[in-house]
Amino acid sequence: MQYGICNETFGNWSLKRSCEFAAESGYSGIEIAPFTLAEDPRKLSANQRDDFRRIIAQAGLECIGLHWLLAKTEGLHVTSPDKNTRVQTIVYLSELIRLCRDLGGKTLVFGSPHQRSLVANVTKDDADGFLEETFSALIPVLEETDTVLALEPLSPVETDVLTTAAETRTIIDSIGSPHIKLHLDVKAMASENQSMPEIIHASAAHLEHFHANDTNLQGPGFGAIEFGPIFQALHEISYAGWVSVEVFDYAPGVEQLVRESIRYMQQVEADVE
Q1: What pLDDT, in 10s, does the model give residues 242-270?
Q2: What angle do CA 223, 108, 33 make, to 5 degrees?
Q3: pLDDT of 87-146, one tens digit each?
Q4: Whole-prediction pTM value?
Q5: Domain boundaries, the chain
Q6: What angle do CA 136, 142, 144 make, to 5 degrees?
Q7: d(CA 168, CA 203)
Q8: Given phi > 0 = left and psi -120 to 50 = alpha, else beta, which region is 30?
Q9: Is 2-272 a domain of CATH 3.20.20.150?
């Protein structure tokens, strides 16, 4: 496994400072929330994109890709009954896919709970159809850029669309593209009836990317979740991809969250191996 961290963890730190501290702490990758780069990341110039890519590389990190894709946007929604809204969402996501490529990234994590939840007069079957239509429309640009869109199941507290890994795998299978795969998140898996190791084993053929956190919204090792069985399952399916730290409660402080999260994961992984 390779360890990365999401850059919004660093708050108002510059990308340069964030990357250097991540590298010093032992991470080998950085995962970018587009809104941290610009109010409208689509408008970043070629020179700006090159500069961000160089900053990441000079710190000794890889750009993993993007997440929080539709955060801080307005009027975008993947299950809207309005076709124009879905088309505009496809256009926006297509531009983020190209941005991911330009930064040297490979994976885009699609969470965006508010921009996928059911709206008035849309049934679950309708929503599934709109999801397939929207994500399928992205396949040509995903192929062009050699990137992967990783769909993230989220808890029912966050959304009512794609709330289990099994449901998400069904959509992925229906789309049938190697460029549309699965992302798993620890706090989200905690809401499912299956155990996390069971979910990981069932998802082995679909899994593209992984987020490490806790139900207390802090980093791995900061809450009640024991990562031993999780990492054991990842080891058993020979997962060799990224494990990125994604937190939502920064109360312990940036430095402690960053350093202690990877220290805990490295120890757990060593015990598993």
Answers
A1: 999 999 999 999 999 999 999 999 999 99
A2: 65
A3: 999 999 999 999 999 999 999 999 999 999 999 999 999 999 999 999 999 999 999 999
A4: 0.97
A5: 2-272
A6: 125
A7: 10
A8: beta
A9: yes
